């Protein structure tokens, strides 16, 4: 809105329509600033240490908004301005000054709000740490139950704060690190409960103490990492050393090689040679690995040798071209560039194949969890010798899985996935010894129910990580095949009273095998529709188009719902599914709003059809919202609700498959010069209106970890109190 005003061109003739439009822009800015400032003032009232600064910034913003509204109050003018009535036409510098003041004060409000968010997270972390110290020192069950109940509530609050922050991080690498830390905290909360209880039950057992200490140590490290990410700092001013993968090395190397087309002198041949050496050094992780097949090892060595030869040829032609730019030499250089890049692509494909085939085979081999089952049985029998035998086998399995994670990191394709691989490696490294200490404790106390429960919890964490690895492997393959990831919404600006609400937990429910079989056909249809929608969005030239982005977001959510029908993915319980359905419906409503805005620009026979389809979309999304929010009780009723949500999601996706090509066709007509679109208006009230919904509950992200954390904390504290 402000840009429209600043760029407004003075014309001797001003139509009523122009004057009204200018006034509407000014009023829209004033209203938007008013709403923004109201939230800022409410935040200030809840945070006294920054109240004065925040209040001053809010006052400045409101004043600037009112000034803009006054200067654009020109709708009633049908004659040249008098000296007594200053407007945008007589004082454009006034609008510029007001706009600068507004942007400056709004930025200040946002920075102060961000400080408050960081302070909330640090305060929450400190409370968690203080309670953890108390938990470590307790000597009675009664005292432990009381403190753990408090600890559970503090962890839920911390999970909410950090979940919102994670969604708002723009750096995908930090977002992945935050997700990894929060996942550790969620899983360790349950481990801390059983490990502490085991230690209280068997205070003289060394293996029980080692088991408990390991959990507390891991939680403290995860809490520390969260604060590092939030405050963008590292202890002792250390710089974070990013691990270099083969994929990222090849990508950078190819960019440098292809840059020679534009500039022959922008880097030295030594730089290119060094970059290739580093890449080839990393391929030794594959060629030296005992788990790389002979065929893959031979191919990688052969391609490494070929890459050196291609680079030598490239450097030779490149040096000649620097001295003499003849047509033949430039053609030879182009051929050398293409051959070098092709060789690197083949090397990338080969290491990807080696890593993913090894991972796939290993994950299939360990799906039966035979070693874990044997540890549980021999532990209950008190057979120390057999437990020692199976702990050795678990250690071997751990080494295989750690090696798998290291190789997958090289071919993960994106920094977030690299970090996920590193997190998985750490999880296997830590959880393996913890399972061993838990099994030893059970073998020493075979009749102990709590020792048996403790081993179960650590084994479940291991099984869960193996399941996550299957999902990670699929994501790595998706990146290799060029599929896009999903976008997220912004959440963590402090809303007045937001984190003070009572946190009510619902009982988590999973679909059993029979229910998954019943819903499989519907899930498959949903999967096919997501593929169709992805195909349609890829046809759009402008991938940043609002309609495309909403379509991609809905497709990603629908795919998550399809995975749920198979018992896979991030949606673990029916509550997760219903929460996802609500977000999906909200995204559909936003798409409908974007379609209405788009239809305002359309001069075409298709406009009535576009509006009709948009209305259908609103109706279907409304129905899904109602279904997802409806309260049900009992297994049968819950399954019926799941079925209805998937069915309504499928109907929306079917409609989306019709809408996307229609909108794409209208845009193409416009580019072809058929005039189906009129110029976009200089102001967009719908943008202002949608801004008011920025802090509604529907904007909550898919904080599945929080949901399950709330659930098991509530259930555990209830059971403990009994």
What would you note in describing this structure?
The protein is an all-alpha fold and 722 residues long. The protein folds into five domains: 1-74 and 90-114, Four Helix Bundle (Hemerythrin (Met), subunit A) (Up-down Bundle); 136-233, Four Helix Bundle (Hemerythrin (Met), subunit A); 246-359, Four Helix Bundle (Hemerythrin (Met), subunit A), CATH 1.20.120.330; 367-481, Four Helix Bundle (Hemerythrin (Met), subunit A); 515-673, Alpha-catenin/vinculin-like (Four Helix Bundle (Hemerythrin (Met), subunit A)), CATH 1.20.120.230. Helix content is 76%, strand content 0%. The protein has 22 helices and no strands. The chain has helices at 2-6, 16-46, 51-71, 92-137, 141-168, 172-201, 206-231, 246-259, 269-287, 294-323, 327-365, 370-381, 384-410, 415-444, 449-480, 513-538, 546-565, 574-599, 607-629, 635-671, 685-691, 704-721. The longest helix has 46 residues, at 92-137. The two termini are 60 Å apart. Residues 78-84, 485-507, 674-707 and 714-722 have low confidence and may be disordered. This is Alpha-catulin. One of its GO terms (molecular function) is actin filament binding. InterPro entries: Alpha-catenin/vinculin-like_sf, Alpha_catenin, CTNNAL1, Vinculin/catenin. It comes from Mesitornis unicolor (brown roatelo). Belongs to the vinculin/alpha-catenin family.
